[in-house]
Predict the structure of Pyridoxamine 5'-phosphate oxidase N-terminal domain-containing protein.
Amino acid sequence: MSEAVAQLNETLLSMLQSETFVLLNTVDAETGGPTSTAISWIYAVSPSIVRLTVDHRSRLVNNMKVNPQVTITVFGEGTVHAINGRAAVRQDPLLDVPFKMCCFDIEIEAVRNALFYGAQLESAPRYAKVYDQRAAEKLDGQVFAAMKKA
């Protein structure tokens, strides 16, 4: 593991300004235990702020409202990055989207290389959307546009 820095480097900033997926790690509001969920509605506003949107049906909304400490795990640059920060509601509900969502800003406190010593990722994980492609593109467009305006 490497020394922590308090903001995204140019490569991570660029990666998080286009569609990608990450693991969002929160503290479960009911059990106090750790949780990890894959999300793709994430956008780097600046080197020190990452914005994400979560469907209100998700436990993640309450988790971040009760305990704002989060870790975002990003796979890229041949490694695994752990972005630690504090979540704050940016807009609730997120405007101009077809269902109730909550938009959070994550103020970055530390970015670390979280891959074990001597290893390098050969490729970043990829995903495919397995539902209606047109519906997915429309919803993603609405969510990302609303996130950028929030």
Observations:
- The chain is about 20% helix and 40% strand.
- The domain at 10-149 is CATH 2.30.110.10 (Pnp Oxidase; Chain A).
